[in-house]
Predict the structure.
Amino acid sequence: MFFSLQFYNEEEAKKYSQNSRMIEIQTQMSERAVELLNLPEGQPCFLLDVGCGSGLSGDYLSEEGHHWVGVDISTAMLDVALDREVEGDLIVGDMGHGMPFRPGTFDGCISISALQWLCNADKRTHSPPKRLYTFFSTLYSSLSRGSRAVFQLYPENSEQLELITTQAMKAGFSGGMVVDYPNSSKAKKFFLCLFAGVSGVLPKVRNTGGECILLLFHLCRFKNMKGKSAKKGRDWILEKKERRRRQGREVRDDTKYTGRQRRPHF
C-alpha cells in the first residue's frame, strides 16, 4: 500500500511485512498484475513498482528475473525493505507529486493497493483530480511507448472509478478494467490496465476456478465534454503539444495563433 502506510511506525511496518497472509495475498496480486502487463516471455524488463511498501511485490518481480524501482511515501516501510535487502532500488515519494523519471525509462509499471488513496484529500491543498492527473501524466512520460501499467485497487464506488479513469485518459492512456472473481465479496479484485501510446487487447472473459474475469469497460481517447471529437481543434493541439513536451520532445511555444483556423485562399 502507498499513502495510508505513511502513518505506520517501524514496528507496525515490520508486523505487516512478516504477516504470512499478507505476503501470500501480495504475491498473488503481484503475479496477476505482471500477467496483465503482457511482458515478452523470457526477457528481463525494467519495471516501476508504485506504492512498493516493504518490497513484497518487488520480491515477485525479482523472482521473475526483472529489475525494478520502487516508490513509496512511507519511510518506515522502505526501511523494512532495506532491512529485507530487496533487490530493487527504492525512492521516497508521494505519487500525487508525480514520477521523477526520464521519458521512456520503464518497460511497465505495477501498483498494488495504492492508487485509490489519491482520491482522498488528506490536506487542504490536496485536489484529487489534480493529483491523479499529475501522477498519470508523469507516469505516461516515464513509460516506453507500447508498454502497460497495471493497478490493483480497492475503489470505494463507481464515482471514484470514473474520477480515476477520466484523469488517466486526459494524461493520454487508453485501457480498461478487469475484475477477478466478481461474484465474491471477499475475493473480488479490480485491476486497471492502462496502455501507453498503443492500444492493446485486454483479456477475454474466461473461467478461473469457477469464477469469471469480466471486462467492465474500455477507455477511449479523451474527448471534450460535449461528446464531439476535439481532434485538430485548439484544445486537441495544446494537449498533443503538452504530451510531446512530457516525452522530452522539442515543441514550438504556444501563441494566440495556436489552433486558429486559417482563412481559405481563393
Q: What stands out?
A: Residues 20-37 form the longest helix (18 residues).
